[in-house]
Amino acid sequence: MNGWTVTATAALAGGVGATVWGVATGPLRRRVVAQNLSTSLACPSLLLLAQGYQRPSYVDLALVLALLGPVGTLVFARLLADDLEKDPPKSAWLTYAVAGFGAVVVLVLCAVTGPGRTMVKLLVVGALLIGGNLIASRALAAGFAGSGDG
Fold first, then answer.
1. What one-character DSSP code corresponds to residue 31?
2. Is the dihedral of CA 19, 21, 22, 23 positive or negative?
3. Rounded Cα distance, 142 and 83, in Å
């Protein structure tokens, strides 16, 4: 074990364990937020495991997860719009904390790998991960302020 795998294990055990608990219990607003955050925590963990085990294929899996995770959240937001309108999720600080964790992981890995194709792939994964997380969280909270439709 090295520092990369220890960090990935801590993120998976603590973060994803908490999101599984959030999905399995509580009101609907907590469940959809936990579902959204599970992707945002699992993706950086895959990037850390890719570096720890020297397996570039894990980065491809993280890329797919960063792309499809927010799409799934947007589908949930659309299907559950009526129920979420009554009691919208409020998790701005948690969303920004997880987005910050993803940004730190991506930036550290970019610094370690150096310039090249791997760095470009890491930056794409980071942009998809952070952007998708913020957009999906905003959709769960009834859309953008002033849009009127949500």
1. H
2. positive
3. 11
Q: What is the pLDDT of residues 81-111, one digit of tens each?
A: 888 888 778 778 888 888 999 999 999 999 9
Q: What's the distance, Cα to Cα, between the start and end of the chain in Å?
A: 46
State how far the Cα of 77 lies from the Cα of 66, in Å rounded to an integer. 17
Interval 13-56: pLDDT, tens: 988 888 888 888 888 888 888 888 888 899 999 999 999 999 98
How far is 76 from 6, CA to CA, in rounded Å?
32
- How far is the C-alpha of 43 from the C-alpha of 63, rounded, in Å? 8
For 44-70, what is each residue's pLDDT tens digit? 999 999 999 999 889 999 999 999 999
54: which DSSP letter? T
Cα distance between residue 23 and residue 36, in whole Å: 10
- DSSP string across 36-50: HHHHHHHHHHHHHHH
Q: How far apart are CA 147 and CA 91, in angstroms?
A: 20
Please give the full DSSP string across 84-114, using - where no structure is assigned. Answer: HHHS----HHHHHHHHHHHHHHHHHHHHHH-
